[in-house]
Each structure stands twice: as C-alpha cells, then as structure tokens.
Amino acid sequence: MIFRNISRKTGAVVLILSMALSFCSCSMFSKKDVLAAAKDVAENIEDFDADKLLDLSTLNKNGEKAEDLRKGLNGEYLDEKTKKFCDAVRKTIRYEIIEDSFSAKGNEASVDIEFRIVDYKSLLRGTYKNIDELVSAVNDSEDTIKVTYGARFVKEDGQWLLDNLMGSSFLGIFDFMDSDIGALAVDLTDIVEKTSWAGADDGSYKNTRRLALQIEFKSDISKLAGKGVKIFYTVSKDGSEVYKSKTAEIGSSTRLTLQYSTTQNPDAELRSNYLAAGTYTFKLQTEDGTVITSQDVNVTVAVAETTGGTTTSSKGYVFNDSEFKAKVLTASWVNIDNKRVSTASYGSDATTISFQMQVDPSMTENLYFAYYYASTVSEAMKIRPKTDSPAISGISKPIVNSKGTFYAMGLKTKVGKSFRPGIYILAIFSEDKETIYGIAECQILSQTASSYRN
Question: Which pTM value belongs to this model?
Fold first, then answer.
C-alpha cells in the first residue's frame, strides 16, 4: 500500500514535470521566432518600407488602411517643408527589442519594441529663420525621446505575423509627422490671394495724399498666428526707399492694408500737399528677407490754378518737431497788402508774403528761416531744405507786445518788381540750423488778386 501510494505520487510528479518541459520547449521556440519577426518589423519601420511591413502583417494589402500606410510613409500628406523636417527626424530613429517583455499564449504573442527618436518636440519650441535651420537643429541634437510599440503577433501557417499594424500603438511612433512647424510649413511667397489699390483710378493715383495697398491672404495664413513671424513693408519711389514701417506679427487676420501718405515722411514728400509724381513700389517682407509681395503703382500730379480754397496745401504749413509744435498757438500766411487770394496763395501783384506765428511766451529763441523757389509743383517736390541752397534766408527774433509773443518770416519784392509765379517754400529751423521745425508753403498765382475775386 505504501509503495503503490508512493508510486502514484511519483508518477504524478513525473507527469507534471513532463508537461512543464513540453510547455517550456514550445515557448522557447516561439520566443525565438517572434523576436526574429519583431526584428524584421522594427528594421522596416526604420526604413519606412510600407510594402515590407504589409508582407509581415495580417493587414489586407489592398485595403484602405494599407493604402493609407503607403501614402503616409511616403510623405504624400505633407507639404515640402514638413517633409524635409520629417525626413531629418526619421533618420534619427533607432530601435531596441525589449526581450523581457515577451509573452506568448498559443498562437498569439507580444513583445515591446522601444524606439529612440530625436527630441523633436523640444526643437519645435525654438525659433528658426527657415526650414534648413530647423533641419540642422535636428541633425545636431543629441537629445532623444522614447516611444514604445507594443507589437502583437499571431501565428498563421507557421509564420508569426504582426497583427496590430496601423493600430494606435504603431501610429504613435510617427507622431512627429503630425508636427506643426508653423511658419516654416507655410510658403510665404505664395500666401497672397489678391491685392488692390484703394482709391486708385485705373490702377494709378492722381493728385493724392495717400497710397493704400489692400492685401487679402489665403486661409493658410492662420497657421502663422502666434508663431512670432514678424513682417514689415517698405515704400520706394522710382527705385529709392522713402519709407520703412515698423515690424508686426502676421497671422491674426486675412486682410492687411499698407499705406503711405504725406504725413509719414513730410520733409521728403510734403510739397503742394500731394505725393510726388513717380512710380511707388510697396514691398511686404519678413524680417529674414523673404518677400511676400511687391506691387507698383503710378502717381501723377496735375495741380490746376484755381480760385477759392484750393491751394498747394490745405493749411499751408506743417510742423515736424513735436516740442516746437506744442508751443505754437496760431500760424498762418498773412494778408499784409490785401493780395492774398486764399489760405496759402497770393495774386501776381503781391509785393509781400509773410508767415507769422503766435507762440507760448516762454519761447525766446531766435529762429533761422530760408525761402526756396520752384516754378512748378514737380520742382517743388524735389526741394530738400536741409541740403539745398535757399533763395534767401534770415533770422527771425521773437516779437513781444501786449497781444503776446510772435514770429514773422516775410519776403518782400524790390520796388517796381513782382514775385515770379510759382511755389515759395519756407523752412523754419533752430538758430543753429541743426533742427528743422517746420515747412510752410504758399503760391504766387499767374494773375492779379482782383482777377480771382468776384
């Protein structure tokens, strides 16, 4: 009885051990084959070889997901700049099969494949002038992130095939292909939908004080919002730059208006209160020099001599120095001999023209003034008071009387002589001639004052 009982127990132990050895033998062979299959999968992930991955998987090669895999790994869903970035990241991918993670049950098995990829997320938080700078940063970086793919396999016809190709764990390897590279993903040279000149007649301006280029962008511009892409524009006249705007960020709006007027550069352009005739070029560009758009418009000036309030300047003056302007209480061209026709024009029989200002009593400095003459508006627009020689100049001292403090800067003809018809430009300077405080203009008309009056 004791022997049989022992024999039974012994037999049971032998049977259990035999079963255990059989199971271990099966798992060992499965592990070797699964790891080999995992190695093939990992290598073809590194190579972005969609067709080979499909051969190693249970996925239908002719299905929608298979086609999506082919197009995705070929970069068909990417613009050119993002594709350059992704190609650089792809080259950094390295894999390691985590053998300790292996598990198997019957015809099913799994193992983790760990991929090391450049830390592209940190790199994308940097600032780059162009896609090449970003690619260089990817190539130079030694920092990596870890992405783990839990690969699952099934055994079919004696072969271990990947069973979760295109699953969420697999797709996580390629998250970098969905990266938003912001401004670098937008072709700034092809972002403009259309442009138009506001207020232009047949594509050109005549007798204008303001140019306005209206720009409508494509919807892609929204990708630039918050990306810190700085833009500015310049205005050139006949090839020479006359204005440069401040920088601003682009992306928050699909519309933009660029403008240039007499108030933006009065010393260069404020003559007759119209912008000078010529061809103006508006160029919108980024800080790194990428030209977004460049548009030309033609400007003509044809000032007709008229009676009434139409003169070469609506006020007849402008002050460029803000501190000086704040001290001027009143200013005007005065009607000394009753020959003034309008705000800033005199008849041909005028013998005196004079520009007068009432200023704050605290102002005691002497002023240097200079008169320049031009026979036409186009000539007047070319005058540069800081560099051109005046027809006549002088010093104006403050005049103090019971009514206040005044300055008078006049010009008088010789006895028996008349002013030449044309435009008379008065430049008002500091006494040392270093600072130009303002410009005043008046016109001597071609006929006597009485001929312009009813």
Answer: 0.48
